[in-house]
Amino acid sequence: MMKSIPKSKTGINGLDEITEGGLPQGRPTLICGGPGCGKTLMALEFIVKGATLYDEPGVFMAFEEKADELSANVASLGFDLEKLQRNKKLRLDYVHIKASEIEETGEYDLDGLFIRLGHAIDSIGAKRVVLDTIENLFAGLSSQGILRAELRRLFQWLKEKGVTAIITGEKGEGALTRHGLEEYVSDCVIVLDHRIINQISTRRLRIVKYRGSIHGTNEYPFLIDEEGITVLPVTSLKLDKAVSSQRVSTGIPTLDQMFGGKGFFRGSSILLSGSAGTGKTSIAANFANETCRRKGKCIFFAFEESPQQIIRNMRSIGLGLDQHVKKGLLQFHSFRPGLYGLEMHLAKMYRLVKKFKPHAVIVDPITNLVSVGLLNDVNSMLLRLVDHLQNEGITLMLTALNSGATEHIDENVSSLVDAWLLVRDVETDGERNRALYIMKSRGMKHSKEVREFIISSKGLNLVDVYRGPEGVLIGSAREAKEKEAMANGKQNGRGHFRAPANKIR
Length: 505
What we know:
The structure is a single chain. The chain is α/β, with parallel strands linked by helices and 505 residues long. The protein has two domains: 7-231, Rossmann fold; 247-423, Rossmann fold (3-Layer(aba) Sandwich), CATH 3.40.50.300. It is 32% helix and 26% strand. It contains 16 helices and 24 strands. The strands form five sheets. Strands 5-4-6-7-3-8-9-10-11 form a nine-stranded mixed beta sheet, sandwiched between helices. A nine-stranded mixed beta sheet has the order 16-15-17-18-14-19-20-21-22, sandwiched between helices. It has a two-stranded antiparallel sheet with strand order 1-2. Strand 9 (200-210) and strand 10 (219-225) form a beta hairpin.
């Protein structure tokens, strides 16, 4: 078994996972990127989490922002820098350097910085150090020879002090940093990127190198919100998830019958697709209601309707979802897809799931996500969501609109899920009815029949297939034939005509 180097946990959500345990202990790490990408915040969170979670005091030396400005900027994240300083868990030091004060006499060195930084480290027994940002330290210095020599000396000095250090740097042209040297003398290099795609802001992180350790090599989206930074690891490439044989009810007894009378597998993923108005949200709401009725917790992500609309509309079919909301068993999160990019949506979902710990998650509908990303990007996002929730043993239900330009979305996603249900409109004799059938259900016996799907004030129901000489009858035609059969006594034991069916009417 390969032995990895000692590491210091960052405490940043997701970052320790993709770094296989944290940053290299006692070595310098470079975090670089353009303005507004989150370099300072990531470095500061590394210091704060070290002091609060791992009892490792830290020194944050800033060359751009004053100490009071830093404290004010991160107060909204719940970081109390002043309290940490009073408890000797943190030292904030602002060093102001003017380019005009630097004279290239050939004797420029960092001895003064080493004395000042060394005193700060020793005063609180610091284990972590941040220098933010390194460009300001060499402002106005154009001699490449002096610059390279002092950069190397700085990184070596930090190693000799035995502190786990982060140095932040601005992005250069044609290089990761402005000087193009820091990435070579750092033991770990993390690049942050802030880009605009389809007018949507997106942040991504990539580990360029990590000496002595394996690490994730992909680009990872990350989120900055009121709780700090969250990095989203890409879905695992290993198909080794634990699975459950337990079953969970759909909330519709007749639909449970189509799944052998037991419903879905717990922790599985279900896709429910159909045209507009076929009752997809109603089926999803029944599943949410059943989960909560059994004292489980459910998150309902809605991209079309507000929670109040969904609760009101579901009352018309006999569901009182508001009672579950009041009990804390059901959470609605409604927002337009255009509010965030795909990565941000995924990050929000991950965070809410981690905080609420639901037994079931509903996303209604996934087709709206196409407005903020290409089809392949949407599929990639959903793959990661499916993968993550399966790892957590959470049952996932996705709804999809399969009309017009979005018709192929459910076909792409269908390969990712365990069960696929279709609901479609059937128009006969000037009447619109609904039919439901199961396209697939992995690992269980399921019905192959097409059932008439009825939505009424009493709830949802699937009517047994009624076959007559004219085909499968639904709606008013079925009701009429049933009455006729009852009158004539021609029905069999299940109330069905025995004649074979070759079409739906």
